Amino acid sequence: MKLGIIGSGKIVHDFLTIADQIPNLELTALATTKRSHQIGLDLQKEYQITKLYDNNDDLFNDPNVDTVYVAVPNSFHFSISKAALEAGKNVICEKPFVATVDEARELKAIADQKKLIIIEAITNIYLENFKFIEENLDKIAPIHVVNLNYTQYSSRYDAFLAGDIQPAFDPKKDGGALMDLGIYNLHIIIKLFGKPEAVNYFPTMQKNIDTSGILHLSYPDKQASSIAAKDSFSPNVSTIEGEKGALIIYGHPNEMPKVGMQLKGQEVKVINNNKYSHRMVAEFIEFTKIIAQHDFKEADQAFTHSLNTLAVLQEAKSQR
To answer: N or C terminus: fewer CB in 10 A for the chain?
Structure first.
């Protein structure tokens, strides 16, 4: 995969630290804004990125790029992903995918027409610890209660309170706790249990944005809650509770560093099956395989899951 990256923010810096762990991935190009050109120069030098652009179109027109990683503020995901597809590039788009179901379907239609791959980058559902949870649901079933918690006091929260509004807290850029943190909880719930019958979001609003909130999802046989908070501190423990026992996620749900299972009447068993020390390695290894093998079946399944998640997310956002 010859990868061109759009963006130079925190997630790009994070990804570049592990790009050398992804087999068959070549860092072909990076595009930044003109304002961030010096950051781009520094990244190009440190990570030996072949080309640096300060114009997205130049990257789209680079014949040595076959896949574009869209790693920009949420509000630009759709427009940049669409431009990349129209230029004939596969697209890996950071979470949350796009703003609406209609936008997602429009991108998929372009990808299908051009026989390209489009996929959402969402770390947790590709982790081995998530697969442990998925494979052991039957052992604790029937399941009646799901409670996921992703609380992380934001490094930008104090600046936000002082009036410095960064993209993660900017309603005009589709920020907020639901979009930034809650999306991880939601992907877990939808991947495990499918779409719910009812969606209710109860946010804590400050300066027209949800700095925290509780999302409630109702199923015929279970109730699921998702706590997402950028304005609080918590040790972060999540549980999936059934009649025969419980499955436990220790730590932030985007990383799932440890998981556990406790069957009724037994001691808890805590494990870590994750193969890699960084949360992004597993997903990008999978994306590279899908794109190299033109595995449209796998890409379609991933898109359907993202679409189901986005439908719930869109409904929750409308309740802010």
So the answer is: C
Label residue 18 by pLDDT band (50, 70, 90): very high
Assess contact for 145 and 241: CB atoms under 8 A. yes
DSSP at 60: H
Residue-wise pLDDT tens digits, 206-261: 999 999 999 999 999 999 999 999 999 999 999 999 999 999 999 999 999 999 99
Report the alpha-carbon distance of residue 217 to residue 20 in Å, rounded: 39
**Distance of alpha carbon 244 from alpha carbon 198, whole angstroms:** 26
61 phi/psi in degrees, rounded to 5:
-90, 0
| 31-75 tens-digit pLDDT | 999 999 999 999 999 999 999 999 999 999 999 999 999 999 999
Amino acid, single-letter form, for residue 60: F
The bridge status of strand 223-229 relative to strand 143-151 is: parallel
pTM, full prediction: 0.96
Q: Where in the chain is the domain with CATH 3.40.50.720?
A: 2-121+281-298
What is the spatial distance between Cα 237 and Cα 246, in angstroms, rounded to a whole number? 12
Tokens (6 digits) for 162: 């002082």
Give the class (CATH, top level) of 2-121+281-298: alpha beta
Q: What is the pLDDT of residue 40?
A: 97
Whether the upstream peptide bond of residue 96 has omega within 30° of 0, thus cis, is yes
At 171 the pLDDT is: 92
Asked whether 312 and 97 are in contact (CB, 8 A), the reply is no
Q: Which CATH number fits domain 125-274: 3.30.360.10, 1.20.58.1000, 3.40.50.2300, 1.20.1280.170?
A: 3.30.360.10
DSSP-derived secondary structure for 134-174: HHTHHHHPSEEEEEEEEE---TTHHHHHTT---GGG-GGGT
Segment 295-301 shows an average pLDDT of 98
Domain with CATH 3.30.360.10 in the chain: 125-274
Q: How far apart are CA 129 and CA 68, in angstroms?
A: 28
Backbone angles phi and psi of 178, in degrees to 5: -60, -50
